[in-house]
């Protein structure tokens, strides 16, 4: 991330002082961004301060919805659940992606091109279809795991039951996104200047030493990007539990994840005002989490 | 441009059999569900429930399944496929063009608010999808855009990751000297962009286009909220609807399950082909993005 800020300051250049042309180039994007992002967010911030009543219509209530959200046990149990999901799934996924990228980069395995594409292919599969497929595979009736267990005369674990559901969801997300993270890390490894490796091999460093002392440190910025996107993704978990709910309606309730809760408040309960407040509180959680992570890792790297 | 080429000249040590086997085992895990899907799409709905999932059954029912999937409910599946293609192409094409224009503008022009606007857009990725989708739905309902294709295309045009990548890419791939030369020749800024810059940005553009295509193709949440009319559904919402009907009907709806399976298989083919076919472009585009993270 450090180079981004350097790049933004831009080298002193001559002849680039054409501010009008610059504005015209960024204008289409910024206009769409304003209309599709800034305006809806401001509107949501505005109507999150109101409450609809059966009698008396809509009234201004100030921060009452936010106070309710902060004391809402359903919301916080959802936040705790996606927090657990994050701790369970993201370290595993990023470590796996890192190991795969390093192995592929050494070129020590045969068929590594096939492996790279095979691991990445799930990213091109829509989350909806990934969930449907894994839902069939997990299934207690005709899922292959249940069939194999049946052959050995035992029962497969209840992947869709209350104890394993979070792990089953974590597996789906792992399957979908490990390859994506691997490709980003692999691309970052390819961008490491070759001279560094030459210098290392002159110094007599082996593969392990090169990976640990040169490759992993130079992956830090890319890993940070992967981590931030994973925090955002984990806390916004929606598609997978939303679809799993039809297979396991008793396990996944309407507040299983915070996004599912906000969705159900808005589009099932018609409580738009409160749903807006809930989703802003979730945004605050994500923002705090991301900054806390950046703060901790930056401090550690300096010391 | 040298940095954007895949660096293939790496010192190669002795190949390791253990690593190869381990890597293939890992690859098998990632391919297993897709193998299951392909096998399942060749089975009749009776065999789907009664035969082993990871092997073919006696009857080869793929063409029956295909025909049923494409004709069920007056061919609504093809309609969903068409919708998905329309939404994905319009949103990804428009979004990539907007990102290319703006990325180039942010990288190569100095103006007031350049950095602030750029950082503002990047910060937007933190906003939860529901926080944005609820007010967007309400606003679109007010102006009559909810339950129309625009409700999917317009919000999908905003692509912060694409903007980031295009800006990084433009910084390295477009030399200032070339722009200066074109200006001395009297070319207008717009002409420089469309005749000089866009060609240099091509690999980055392809990367942004492809990832935006996947993003819109796979989008579920936005169409779920915005659309009521099944005729307008993209494939994701349509298949989820079939699956919901199958689950609600329990065992009585075996046929619908094979439709979900076959439909799922059909709908992932185009993207998988696009990724395999265009891999040279998106991989070099990502390397370029990685240089300056």
What are the key terms here?
A: MetI-like fold; two-stranded antiparallel sheet; 3% strand; globular; B: 293 residues; MetI-like fold; 2 domains; 14 helices; 74% helix
Report on the structure:
By secondary structure, chain A is mostly helical. Chain A has helices spanning 2-9, 19-47, 64-70, 73-106, 112-120, 127-138, 144-151, 165-190, 194-202, 207-218, 220-235, 239-244, 258-267, 272-302; strands at residues 50-53, 57-60. Helices cover 72% and strands 3% of the residues of chain A. A two-stranded antiparallel ribbon of chain A has the order 1-2. In chain A, strand 1 (50-53) and strand 2 form a beta hairpin. In chain A, helix 4 runs antiparallel to helix 11. The radius of gyration of chain A is 24 Å and the shape is globular. In chain B, helix 3 crosses helix 6 (150-156) and helix 12 (235-249) runs antiparallel to helix 13 (254-277). Chain B starts with 16 loop residues before the first helix and ends with a helix. Chain B is globular. Chain B has helices at residues 17-40, 45-50, 62-108, 114-123, 129-142, 150-156, 160-173, 176-184, 189-200, 202-217, 221-226, 235-249, 254-277, 279-291. Chain B has 2 domains: 15-60, no CATH class; 62-291, MetI-like fold, CATH 1.10.3720.10.
**Helix/sheet category of chain A:** mainly alpha
Cα(first) to Cα(last) distance of chain A is 18 Å
Question: What quaternary form is this?
Answer: heterodimer
N-to-C series of helices and strands of chain B: HHHHHHHHHHHHHH
The amount of helix of chain B comes to over 70%
Low-confidence stretches of chain B: 1-11
CATH architecture label of the largest domain in chain B? Orthogonal Bundle
User: Which geometry of chain B do the CA atoms define?
Assistant: globular
Largest interface, and how many residues on either side?
Answer: A-B, 114 and 112 residues
Q: How does CATH name the architecture of chain A?
A: Orthogonal Bundle
């Amino acid at each position: 991330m450090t180079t981004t800020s350097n790049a933004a300051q831009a080298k002193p250049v001559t002849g680039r002082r054409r501010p009008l042309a610059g504005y015209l180039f960024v204008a289409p994007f910024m206009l769409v961004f304003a209309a599709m992002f800034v305006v809806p967010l401001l509107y949501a911030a505005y109507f999150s301060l109101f409450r609809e009543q059966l009698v008396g219509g809509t009234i201004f209530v100030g921060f009452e919805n936010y106070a309710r959200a902060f004391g809402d046990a359903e919301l916080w149990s959802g936040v705790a659940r996606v927090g657990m999901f994050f701790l369970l799934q993201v370290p595993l996924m990023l470590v796996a992606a890192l190991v795969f990228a390093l192995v592929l980069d050494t070129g020590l395995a045969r068929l590594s091109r096939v492996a790279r594409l095979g691991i990445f292919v799930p990213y091109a599969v829509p989350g909806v279809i990934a969930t449907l497929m894994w839902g069939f595979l997990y299934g207690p009736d005709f899922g292959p795991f249940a069939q194999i267990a049946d052959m050995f005369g035992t029962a497969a674990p209840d992947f869709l039951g209350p104890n394993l559901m979070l792990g089953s969801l974590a597996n789906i997300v792992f399957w979908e996104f490990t390859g994506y993270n691997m490709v980003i890390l692999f691309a970052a490894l390819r961008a490491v200047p070759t001279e560094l490796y030459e210098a290392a091999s002159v110094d007599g460093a082996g593969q392990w030493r090169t990976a640990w002392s040169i490759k992993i440190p130079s992956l830090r910025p890319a890993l940070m990007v992967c981590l931030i996107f994973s925090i955002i993704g984990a806390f916004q978990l929606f598609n997978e539990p939303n679809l799993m709910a039809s297979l396991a309606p008793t396990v996944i309730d309407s507040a299983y994840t915070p996004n599912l809760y906000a969705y159900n408040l808005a589009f099932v309960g018609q409580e738009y005002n409160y749903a807006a407040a809930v989703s802003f509180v979730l945004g605050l959680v994500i923002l705090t989490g991301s900054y806390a992570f950046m703060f901790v890792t930056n401090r550690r790297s300096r010391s | 441009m040298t940095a954007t080429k895949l660096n293939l000249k790496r010192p190669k040590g002795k190949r390791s059999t253990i690593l190869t086997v381990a890597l293939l085992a890992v690859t098998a895990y990632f391919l297993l569900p897709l193998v299951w899907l392909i096998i399942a799409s060749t089975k009749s709905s009776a065999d789907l429930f009664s035969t082993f999932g990871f092997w073919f059954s006696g009857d080869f029912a793929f063409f029956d399944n295909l025909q049923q999937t494409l004709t069920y409910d007056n061919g609504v599946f093809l309609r969903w496929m068409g919708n998905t293609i329309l939404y994905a192409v319009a949103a990804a094409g428009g979004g990539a063009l907007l990102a290319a224009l703006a990325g180039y503008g942010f990288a190569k022009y100095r103006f007031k608010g350049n950095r602030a606007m750029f950082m503002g857009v990047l910060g937007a990725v933190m906003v939860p999808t529901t926080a944005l989708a609820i007010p967007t739905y309400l606003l679109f309902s007010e102006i009559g855009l909810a339950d129309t294709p625009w409700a999917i295309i317009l919000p999908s045009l905003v692509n912060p990751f694409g903007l980031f990548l295009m800006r990084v890419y433009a910084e390295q791939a477009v030399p200032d000297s070339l722009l200066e030369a074109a200006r001395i020749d009297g070319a207008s800024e717009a002409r420089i962009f469309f005749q000089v810059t866009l060609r240099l940005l091509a690999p980055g553009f392809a990367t942004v286009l492809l990832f935006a295509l996947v993003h819109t193709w796979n989008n579920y949440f936005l169409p779920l909220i915005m659309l009521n009319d099944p005729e307008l559904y993209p494939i994701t919402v349509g298949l989820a609807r079939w699956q919901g009907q199958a689950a609600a009907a329990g065992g009585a709806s075996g046929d619908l399950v094979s439709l979900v399976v076959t439909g799922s298989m059909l709908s992932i083919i185009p993207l998988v082909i696009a990724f395999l076919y265009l891999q040279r472009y998106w991989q070099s585009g990502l390397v370029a993005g990685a240089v300056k993270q």
